Amino acid sequence: MTRAFPGIFSVGDYRSEARRRLPRMVFDYLEGGADDESGLRHNRAAFDRWELRPRRLIDVSKRVQSTELLGRQISSPLVIAPTGLNSAFWPNGDLSLARAASKAGIPFALSTASNMSIEEVSRGADGDLWFQLYVVHRNLAKSLVSRAREANYSTLILTTDVAVNGFRQRDLRNGFAMPFKVTPRGALDGISHPRWLWSYLTNGMPQLKNFATDHASDTACQAAALRREMDASFGWDDLRRLRDDWPGKLLVKGIVTAEDAERCVEIGADGVIVSNHGGRQLADLPAPIDALPSISDVTPTTDLILDSGIRRGADVVKAVALGATAVMLGRATLYGLSAKGEAGVSDVVAMIVSRPSLTSGGDRLERGA
């Protein structure tokens, strides 16, 4: 098979390319996790503990990966996850991700902490757009939800696991902040990565565009957003009100227990995203792939999306076999974005959907030794 980018054959290869192109401070923001980062390793190790047991001598000459998610048909059981500060990786990174998702026939979720606004992405990309909500300030949250509705986003994602920001030692050591702080070490780091530096100088400082519009002009909202201070009082009654206010599909992200998943569905959520935030909030949380079976047992008719740790097609097969309707791609597509822009994102998605592990299938899973 002819590769779009010679020498790149895996998500791991794209990770290496991203590491070469990005300054250390920026790559560490992409790559890093909370506390001692054991959660990152735990997420991947959990996938490795599950083994595929394929059934042989079945006609698989015609394979269909399309599935129904939230009432819509998508080409593969994939969603590009909401991630923040994507313009730090590639100019107009949010739009590159959204356009790659549209070309692949899968949804794209825009983060509250995006560098392009809700409206800019809606104007610049076709396809199924979702919006992920951080409740930083109640008035700001209402404004963001209203804007997403007016911009024709089909699905709202409430993220629930950032009541307190994760203790990310890499970011603290590097002094990572928005806007970027220019230090002698940071300047030297940028100069030693000329491709990234040129794009940064020609496209300007990434901004949190959703907090820099007339709709979000409240100075208290903007200050809280820039400090990433979330509303830690947001609770189940607030979720009920959000369900009443939002006419489209509603997902709740950050769920790792069957009890919470069941309660989300009872309140009216259309689905649950089983996620530990990619290991970026707490290290000592269940790996989503391990939490998934018990959640699937209590929500058998609900769409479940698995997030955190997907790197190859076999991971998708395992998640779907254990009860997920689809999975979210986060760091995997950001590696592609950081290395090659929109084309890199498309290539990562193509790698995952075209690998034999995602197309040959297996109908049983067992714990590995």
UniProtKB/TrEMBL annotation:
Cofactor: FMN
Coiled coil ranges: none
Domain FMN hydroxy acid dehydrogenase: 3-369
Residues engaged in binding FMN: P82, T83, G84, S111, T159, K253, S275, D307, S308, G309, I310, R311, G330, R331
Active-site residues per Swiss-Prot or TrEMBL entry: H277
Residue positions binding glyoxylate: Y29, Q132, Y134, R168, H277, R280
Keywords: Flavoprotein, FMN, Oxidoreductase
Keyword Oxidoreductase: yes
One GO biological process term: aerobic respiration
Any one GO molecular function term: L-lactate dehydrogenase (NAD+) activity
A Pfam family recorded for this sequence: FMN_dh
GO CC, any one term: plasma membrane
InterPro entries: Aldolase_TIM (IPR013785), Alpha-hydoxy_acid_DH_FMN (IPR012133), FMN-dep_DH (IPR000262), FMN_HAD (IPR037396), FMN_hydac_DH_AS (IPR008259)
Family: Belongs to the FMN-dependent alpha-hydroxy acid dehydrogenase family.
Annotated protein name in UniProt: FMN-dependent dehydrogenase
Taxonomic lineage from the root: Bacteria, Pseudomonadati, Pseudomonadota, Betaproteobacteria, Burkholderiales
